[in-house]
Amino acid sequence: MSDLHVVIAGGGLGGLALAQGLHRAGLSVAVYEKDPGPAFRNQGYRIRINPDGITALKALLTPPTYEVFAATAGTPGSRMDTFDHQLNLLHAQELPPVPGLPGDGNLAVNRMTLRQILLSGLDKAVHYGARLTRYDVDASGSVTAHFADGTSASGDVLIGADGVNSAVREQYLPKARVVDAGLRLLYGKVPFAGDEARSLLPPELLGLWTTVVGPQRRFVGLAPVQYREPMDQVTARLAPGVGLSDDSDYLACVFGARREQFPCSDAELFAMTGAELQALTLSLVEGWHPQLIETVARQDSTSVFPVSVRTSVPVAAWETTAVTLLGDAIHVMSPAIGVGANTALRDARVLTDRLVQSAGGRPLSEALHAYEEEMLGYGFDAVRDSAARGHRLVGQDPLPAPQA
What we know:
Blueprint: E1 5-9, H1 13-24, E2 28-32, E3 46-49, H2 51-60, H3 63-72, E4 82-84, E5 89-91, E6 107-110, H4 111-119, E7 126-127, E8 132-137, E9 143-147, E10 152-155, E11 157-160, H5 167-172, E12 178-191, H6 195-198, E13 210-213, E14 219-225, H7 231-238, E15 250-258, H8 266-271, H9 274-284, H10 290-297, E16 305-312, E17 323-325, H11 328-331, H12 340-359, H13 364-394
Helix pairs in contact: 1-4, 1-12, 2-12, 3-7, 12-13
């Protein structure tokens, strides 16, 4: 084992995927997460995993754990169609299959299930209740992260994987901007435990992702999560050491609109209960197709929560040090093309490869620079593509000019 020690600030999907890859490669790694536990807050429901994400997870996870991931993922096909609010087809899209990947490269996973998979085997490496406040670098190049409870942790490299409100980015790249994209989303889910709710919508609305656009660019996104096998059977068959919570089939049902469309302030919106948010959604889709209204009415009201859509403004490359960034900490994007999580997983794969090279003798600064150069290219391409589609389809604010 190399004596390289990696400190990761943030235990989201990207940070945990990086930890999995480094742990599998025999490198020393520690993850520090501000939340008190892995299920402290709701971070969403269904996630699309595309070929980049699948390829990354296959490289980072152990083979049995990867098989658990593949077996617990839904395979809803590759259609990403757009309809109007009366369910007339506006645009048909079918993503090309990628032979050799599960689901032909298009999977729908439950976020909490994926998080539990990424936590497997990392019990000793993940530390909760550790909110990073600052870091410093000593003369030898060692980085020390300082946490709100007065503790600290040192390593050869610090990875800021601490999300859109990254404390690492704030200190490291103070001029890097994250801006409000002008959209508010109300995430919820419709239980599919029985056939009645499932039969509400025609099959063509149950593809990989369906966008329904109504008047004033209000929209509803629909995407099913349907399991092929009970969780306990999957783990018993493939990896008994992986602990997964049980879950039932559901339909992710997301309402969105520009902030001006909501008859309340942001403060009022974010103070509402799930039942109040569901009632608000129903008022904003009044007159839409009856099947859509009934679908919203069948949301589990306790599952509904609001989100402000934010996006990074692309920045130029910086001078490489022993600190770098990953995922939403550097390239947060709107969900308009559904690749945010996949881009973070790709970051984790690329950075794992570079750090393994450093452990094998490549200078650390050279390895980190190679990661940053590659990541900034595909990462901000995704930011720009997401912003462009969001602006065109649902009125997202145009992306501001890049930072110098």
